Amino acid sequence: MASIQQIQSPTLTAFAEDILQGLSGTPKKLSSKYFYDEQGDKLFQQIMRMPEYYLTDCELEIFESRKEGILQAIGQDHFQLLELGAGDGMKTKVLLRHFLERGVDFQYQPIDISSNVLMELEESLRTELPALKVKALPGDYFKVLHELRGHSGQPKVVLFLGANIGNYTLEQAQRFLRAVAAELNPGDLLLTGFDLKKDPGVILNAYNDPAGITAAFNLNLLRRINRELGATFKLQDFKHWETYNPITGETKSYLVSRKDQHVFIKALSRSFHFEAWEAIDVELSKKYSLSELESLAEQAGFAVQEHFFDQNKYFVDSLWRVE
């Protein structure tokens, strides 16, 4: 069998190399960022509209009820509005529409690794908010932020919504936020969504819906590997499994092999063995306490300016200023 070093070459895509590394490790682990091909994007839009997936409704409620408060806390009427991981923009449009109605001078610059999502977002914005100045920026967050740095003297307001920060461990979140702060100037703002610790049953239901949409979303990763890398995964031979640890606040998603099996991946010229009930770690979604997120802000070089909660205090959008 070829070694990882022998297989890796400049001809392999980043996707292929990450799959190789992830399936060669113990335990096996794949990045949730690869969920988002065209089919994955569509499935995630369905997830966000599920009644069990409270995160979307909570953040939408915050924006609808606190949009003026958010604008007042920003304290500027002339800025660049950047969004990391824009998605379909459903929630952001509430803020965009309000800012336009209030006569704020801003350009909206959504950043996303999915060109499919950005194209659909631009089309919908042209229809729904024709007065909006928008420039979609596909690519890696930090590469785009670095390229934008110094291009404008305008203050920046960065949005990182939908509890995306929860896809990182606490240590990874610290590094991520420090890296964001490093690409901003003192006084620039970051509005981040955090899913808060709550009843564990509410959390588990959001990630293990009875309709099976979340399971289909996670299993679609195997379908993508089949399509793009010529793998032989049989989706029926894997099971979606979800756990929540109320101490750490970590919700974790796994794809569990239902039997002892081998999967061949043509692009990697090798086969991978799965023992019966062996799991692939595919996603983390961390939930925070207020004290944890306030400590996170301080460690990353931000000062907390204001918290915006939904009525149940399931979720918070927290506005931070770069010190």
CATH class wording: Alpha Beta
Q: In whole angstroms, how far apart are the ends?
A: 52 Å
Overall geometry comes to globular
Strand content: 25-35%
Give the fraction of residues assigned to helices. Answer: 25-40%
CATH architecture verdict: 3-Layer(aba) Sandwich
Instruction: Name the assembly state.
Output: single chain
What letter string, H or E per element, gives the SSE order? Answer: HHEHHEHEHEEHEHEHHEEEEEHEE
**CATH fold description:** Rossmann fold
Class based on secondary structure composition and strand pairing: alpha/beta
Q: What is the number of helices?
A: 11
Tell me the name of the CATH homologous superfamily. Vaccinia Virus protein VP39
How much is the average pLDDT? 93
Number-wise, the strands total: 14
What does this structure look like?
The chain has 323 residues and is an alpha/beta fold. The protein has eleven helices and 14 strands. It has a single domain, classed as Rossmann fold (3-Layer(aba) Sandwich), CATH 3.40.50. Helices cover 40% and strands 26% of the residues. Strands 2, 3, 4, 5, 6, 7, 13 and 14 form an eight-stranded mixed sheet that branches. α4 packs parallel to α5. The N terminus is likely disordered.
How are the SSEs placed, and which strands pair?
Layout: H1 4-7, H2 14-24, E1 28-29, H3 38-48, H4 54-74, E2 78-84, H5 92-101, E3 105-112, H6 115-128, E4 133-134, E5 137-138, H7 141-148, E6 156-160, H8 170-182, E7 189-195, H9 200-207, H10 213-229, E8 238-245, E9 250-257, E10 261-265, E11 270-274, E12 279-286, H11 290-300, E13 302-309, E14 315-322
Parallel strand pairs: 1-12, 2-3, 2-6, 3-4, 3-5, 6-7
Antiparallel strand pairs: 7-14, 8-9, 9-12, 10-11, 13-14
Helix pairs in contact: 3-10, 4-5, 8-11
